[in-house]
Amino acid sequence: MASATEIDAMRRALQLARGGPRGLNPQVGAVILSPTGDVLAEGFHRGAGTPHAEVDALSQLPPGAAAGATAVVTLEPCNHTGRTGPCAVALLEAGVSRVVYALDDPTDAASGGAARLRSAGVDVESGVERDAAAALVHDWTHLQRTGRPVVTVKWAQSLDGRAAADDGTSQWITGPDARRDVHLRRAAADAIIAGTGTVRADDPALTARAEDGSLLENQPVPVVIGESEVAPDAAVHRHPHPVILARTRDLFVVLADLGARGIQRVFVEGGPTLASSFLRAGLADEVLVYVAPVLLGGSRLALGDIGVSTIADARRLRVTRIETLGDDLLVVAHPHETTPDPHGDA
Question: What is the pTM of this model?
Answer without folding.
Answer: 0.90
